[in-house]
C-alpha cells in the first residue's frame, strides 16, 4: 500500500483487517508518518507534540538507534542460542543499573512476556501457585500477566473472572480509595493481612506483584514504606517479590532509575520492557542467580528473538543515549518544572482534583466534585480530543479513565512542556 492512500480509507481498511479488540487512539486518529524527538508528523505535515509515548522513551527516530540497527542488520540477526558479544554486553549493562544481588537476566520481547515470566519464576522458585497482586493494575495480556491484571478500564469483569490462584489487595492510592491522605499507610497493613491469611490457610503466596509507583493509576506514589512492609511479609512466608517496572522504570521518574528505589525496597525479581528498546520490542526479567536457577527445574524458557543481536545493540544504544543525553536528569528537571506548572493549573481550574507523579511520569486527575471525587470521565476524553486539535497527543488512564497520563519521551524540552500546559490551560478555560 502506498503511504499517500486516503486517510479514511486506511482507517476503514485497518478496522476490516485487524482484530477489533486491538483499539487505536482517538475515533479519528491522525495518520502518523514520521517522528523526531517528542514530535510526530502526520501525512498532512501537521506536527503534534507527543506527551504520552513512553515506548519511544529516548525520542522518536533517534539517529543512534537507527545507526545501531542498520549496522547490526547488515551484519547479523539471529536467535539467541548463538554466541555473540552484544547479548552479554547488554545483560551486563542492565544488571549494572540494579543492586548487586539482581545479577541474572532473561531476555524477552515485551512487557507482558516479562511479567508473565516473572510470575512463573516466582512459582517455580517456591513450588507454589498462589500470587498476590494489587487491584486496578495492568500487567499484560498473556495468560499469567492477564490473570493478575484487574483494571476495569481494560476488562470490566476483571475481578470476577480471576483464576483461583490470584489474590488481590487494595490499590494503594492515597488520593482515592478506602484509605486517604495520612491514613494511606493502612494499605500496607491490609495487604500484610491478606498475605498472612494465605499463610494461615496453608497456601502461602509464591509471589507478590505490583508496580512500585502506580503507573496505571496515573503515576501515583505508593504510601511511604508500603513496599518495605509488604515485601517483608511476602518474604516471611517464603514468597518472591516482583516489581513491574515496565512503565515507571528506566529513568522516567527522574530522581530514581528504578521505581522500587523510591520506596527504599529491593524486589527479588524486576520485569521491564517498553523504554528498554526505545520502540524495538525488548523485555527483560532480572533476578538473583539462585532464583533463576530454580526456574531451570521448574519451567521451560527459551525466546527465539529475546536478546537477539538486533535487540541487544538497540538496548545498548538506548542505555548510551540515556547516559549521554542526560535523560534521567532531564526527566527530573523538565518533569519538575512541568509538575509545578500543573500544580498552578490545578489551583485555577476546579475540574483538576490533583496532580500525581514524579519526573516525566505525571498524572492530572479530573473530578466533578472535590468531596466525592466523582471521576470526570467524559470530560477527560473530550479534553484529550480538544488537545489533539491543538496539536498535543494525550490520553486518559486509570480505572475511571479520568487521569491524563503524562509520560512523554524523556528528551522532551521545557519549551514543549510549556506548550502543553498552555494548550491545556486554554482548553480548561475555553471549554471542551
Ligand atoms: N506492565 C505494565 C505496568 C504495563 O503498563 C504494560 C503495558 N501497558 C505491560 C506490563 C505490558 O507490556 P506490553 O504491552 O509490552 O506487553
UniProtKB/TrEMBL annotation:
The lineage of its organism: Bacteria, Bacillati, Actinomycetota, Actinomycetes, Mycobacteriales. It comes from Rhodococcoides trifolii. The chain holds residues 530 to 961 of 961 of the full protein. Belongs to the class-III pyridoxal-phosphate-dependent aminotransferase family. This is 4-aminobutyrate aminotransferase.
Amino acid at each position: 500500500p502506498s503511504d499517500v492512500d486516503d486517510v479514511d480509507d486506511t482507517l476503514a481498511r485497518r478496522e476490516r483487517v485487524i482484530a477489533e479488540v486491538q483499539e487505536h487512539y482517538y475515533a479519528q486518529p491522525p495518520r502518523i508518518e514520521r517522528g523526531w524527538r517528542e514530535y510526530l508528523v502526520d501525512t498532512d505535515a501537521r506536527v503534534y507534540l507527543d506527551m504520552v509515548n513512553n515506548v519511544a522513551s529516548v525520542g522518536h527516530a533517534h539517529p543512534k538507534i537507527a545507526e545501531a540497527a542498520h549496522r547490526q542488520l547488515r551484519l547479523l540477526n539471529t536467535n539467541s542460542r548463538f554466541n555473540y558479544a552484544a547479548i552479554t554486553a547488554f545483560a551486563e549493562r542492565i544488571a549494572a543499573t540494579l543492586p548487586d544481588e539482581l545479577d541474572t537476566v532473561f531476555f524477552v520481547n515485551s512487557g507482558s512476556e516479562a511479567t508473565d515470566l516473572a510470575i512463573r519464576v516466582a512459582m517455580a522458585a517456591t513450588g507454589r501457585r498462589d500470587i498476590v497482586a494489587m487491584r486496578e493494575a495492568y500487567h499484560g495480556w498473556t495468560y499469567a500477566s492477564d490473570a493478575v491484571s484487574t483494571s476495569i478500564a481494560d476488562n470490566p469483569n476483571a475481578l470476577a473472572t480471576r483464576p483461583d490462584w490470584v489474590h488481590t489487595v487494595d490499590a494503594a492510592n492515597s488520593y482515592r480509595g478506602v484509605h486517604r491522605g495520612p491514613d494511606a499507610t493502612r494499605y500496607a497493613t491490609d495487604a500484610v493481612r491478606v498475605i498472612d491469611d494465605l499463610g494461615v490457610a496453608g497456601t502461602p503466596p509464591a509471589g507478590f506483584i505490583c508496580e512500585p509507583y502506580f503507573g496505571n493509576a496515573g503515576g501515583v506514589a505508593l504510601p511511604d514504606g508500603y513496599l518495605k512492609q509488604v515485601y517483608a511479609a511476602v518474604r516471611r512466608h517464603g514468597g518472591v517479590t516482583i516489581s513491574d517496572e515496565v512503565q515507571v522504570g528506566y529513568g522516567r521518574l527522574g530522581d530514581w532509575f528504578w521505581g522500587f528505589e523510591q520506596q527504599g525496597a529491593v524486589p527479588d525479581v524486576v520485569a521491564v520492557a517498553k523504554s528498554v528498546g526505545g520502540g524495538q520490542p525488548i523485555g527483560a526479567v532480572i533476578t538473583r542467580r539462585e532464583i533463576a536457577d530454580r526456574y531451570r527445574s521448574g519451567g521451560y524458557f527459551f525466546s527465539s528473538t529475546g536478546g537477539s543481536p538486533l535487540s541487544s545493540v538497540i538496548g545498548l544504544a538506548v542505555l548510551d543515549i540515556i547516559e549521554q543525553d542526560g535523560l534521567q536528569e532531564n526527566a527530573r528537571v523538565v518533569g519538575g518544572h512541568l509538575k509545578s506548572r500543573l500544580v498552578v493549573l490545578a489551583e485555577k481550574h476546579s475540574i483538576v482534583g490533583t496532580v500525581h507523579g514524579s519526573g516525566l511520569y505525571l498524572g492530572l486527575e479530573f473530578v466533578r466534585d472535590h468531596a466525592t471525587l466523582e471521576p470526570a470521565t467524559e470530560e477527560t476524553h473530550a479534553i484529550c480530543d480538544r488537545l489533539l486539535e491543538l496539536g498535543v497527543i494525550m490520553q486518559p488512564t486509570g480505572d475511571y479513565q479520568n487521569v491524563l497520563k503524562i509520560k512523554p519521551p524523556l528528551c522532551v524540552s521545557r519549551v514543549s512542556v510549556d506548550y502543553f500546559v498552555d494548550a491545556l490551560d486554554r482548553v480548561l478555560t475555553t471549554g471542551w
